[in-house]
Amino acid sequence: MDESGLCPECGAHDYVSGQHLWLDNGDIVMNTGQTERLVFFECENLDPLMSGIEEIIGVSIEHIVISSYRRALRMYLTSLLPDNVSELVRDRALDLKTVDDGFRDIAKLTGSGKYEFVDMRYEQDEKDFFTVNITKPYSLLMCVAGHAAAMEAVLGYDHGVTYAEAGPGAYAITAFPSEHPQELKGRMFLFPYHHQEGEIDLERCGTCGGPKALSAFKWDLDNGIIAHKITGRRMAVQGPNELEPIFNELENELGDTIPEAIVEAQRRFTKTGFYTMETVSDTDDFRTQLALRGLGNLKDLKASKKGLRMRLDNATLHLMIMGMMQGIFDSAFDTDSTVEWELSDDQQLQLEVTPKS
Q1: Is 61-184 CATH 3.30.420?
Q2: Phi and psi dihedrals of 86, rounded to 5?
Q3: In CATH terms, is domain 268-357 a member of 3.30.1380.20?
Q4: What pTM value is reported for the model?
Q5: How does residue 279 score in pLDDT terms, banded at 50, 70 and 90?
Q6: Residue ranges of domains in the chain
Q7: Which tens digits make up the pLDDT trace of 154-165?
Q8: 3-state percent breakdown (helix, strand, coil) of the chain, nearest 5
Q9: CA separation for the pair 245, 145 (Å, rounded)
């Protein structure tokens, strides 16, 4: 992919730095409309998180993850398209592959991996299909769901999806017309994001205007990978409105123990060493890092062997954050703990981690 979009000063691609705004309360939004909140965060824990939930509850959740993510992402992708795209594609005035080319380019720029066209049939009947390969997906299940969501957004009707391994780190994904179960229709509710003012002021790149801290990451445009230059940890731009519905749907389907299972799965992953106490030991830097990721506005953090307390205003993906903080505490003090939390209507998260006696 052409690297002309990379900022000569900080190295960030202008799709990310130019199409998004980092606001003053630890939030990221699209610069048009500003009603869709996004995050820029480490993504290598997503598949282990889902596997960890399955291990804890003893039930496969793959179908729920794919279904809920597909529905949520379809709504977001539809909002990016002109209103008449489906009609133009149906009338052959616009090529289906050309539209999907654009979605696949965006996927590369936002760190989702490398989607490549394989084959398609579009005769507007039940035998249609559209197959792509994904190499080094940021999350296999979410990339599978993402392809189906793209087809639904462009064509305006339901699709099923299958996938199979196509080589080391590569998978073939095929979407095809398929009506979804009636009980799933109408249950997805996404609420526009409304900014609340804060006091965070991230230092800016003098050339592109994005956060200067983006200079810590490298865009591999050919492979659709964004990675930290030192740690190598992979990043992706994602929307909480696509991830939160997965957690909500799991709770709807499997019961009210799911939030605790999500926290516990994230705690276990964190204890593998992905995050450490050094990550949070400098409170000012941790506040900046959370804001850079769009996860909220850190107002207070205190940690000792007696426990950990944290207040995060404007929080999003709070269950993942809680599991991360509990895992960091357990690893640092070689203990097991409990975590209690409260999330207010205005998304103020207060959590307390306490070692078990």
Answers
A1: no
A2: -55, -45
A3: yes
A4: 0.92
A5: confident
A6: 61-184, 268-357
A7: 999 999 999 999
A8: 40, 25, 35
A9: 13
